[in-house]
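Researcher: Please translate sequence to structure tokens.
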Amino acid sequence: MTNAYTTPGLVCAHHHLYSSLARGMPAPKIAPHNFLSTLENVWWKLDAALDHDMIYWSAALGAAEALLSGTTAIIDHHESPNCIEGSLDVIHAACTDIGIRVIPCYGVTDRWDNDGKLQEVNTTSPMTQGAELGLAETKRYLLSDRPAMVGVHAAFTCTDETLDTAAHLATEFHTGVHIHVAEGQDDRDAESRLQKYANDDWLIVHGVHLQKPIAGTIVHNPRSNMNNAVGYARPAQWRNRIALGSDGIDSNMMSEFQLAFIAGRADDISFSPDLAWNWLFNGSQLVPDTQNDVVTWNYPHMDSSWHLAYTTSLHVTDVSINNEFVLFEGKLTKVDLEETRRKAEEQSRRLHHALAMSE
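Model: Translation complete:
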């Protein structure tokens, strides 16, 4: 930190940029009654409706909002089963146009059968065509030498063949696997299937129902966990590095830090904001270049977790990445924010119409 008003760039260690268009979406025709039904009736329907224009403007809006909140890098987890090819390029283009760093992945899954219908996954079945296409998109993007990870949705929606192939692809390209693990009860004991593959390069997202240790960085998403009523993860119980993500809610990592503290304090009165603060800045170990980014805030105690845990009026004035202002005096320098919002709103209406017309 260069002075009391600045921090390095913040990192969202787990995002779903496509969720930017979900705001105001029509209510699901079947009201969710648990976490799996939320996935089936909300998020998996949204994923299936995405096209390139929706993906671009959703990522652009999410990236713009990230810079406005001091986030200079996003580790994104993407899925669009009917628009896989080229999807990672679209996300990269959107984030580059805004001026933010992005490490994308495509979340491969076997939950869609070869006819495009949702199915319950038999772990011993062959890999589906959708998973093959997702892995092909991943490999194509990795061959471009841009930063990326190998994405997997979750163990419970993948066959053994898919998990094995994804893990070996990550090893081949010297990167990690970015995967939801034990987020809900339906993925409980996922670590048993993943133990033989996981290493320190992996991102273990959520880990709410982890029963035993697994290698990798655990990405804690307190706001999402509360929103989905999956429980409190108690990440402090593990020896792993802990980082913070938003799981697609937004990119405001200072808010995520504050709620990580409150959630920890609600569980244990001795929980210190210093611990949640360390989790926040562990993200910079995942994207080291952010340590040289400079975020200027309106508050003179940006080096004090005890101040920031209880301060709700924080906002960002300037953001410099690679010694270039991408936000100056509260305004984006590379794009027109209002135009980005208008374009995103157009795609949001298209998406919501598609969802309303879906079965």
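Researcher: Any highlights?
Model: The first strand starts at residue 6 and ends at 7.
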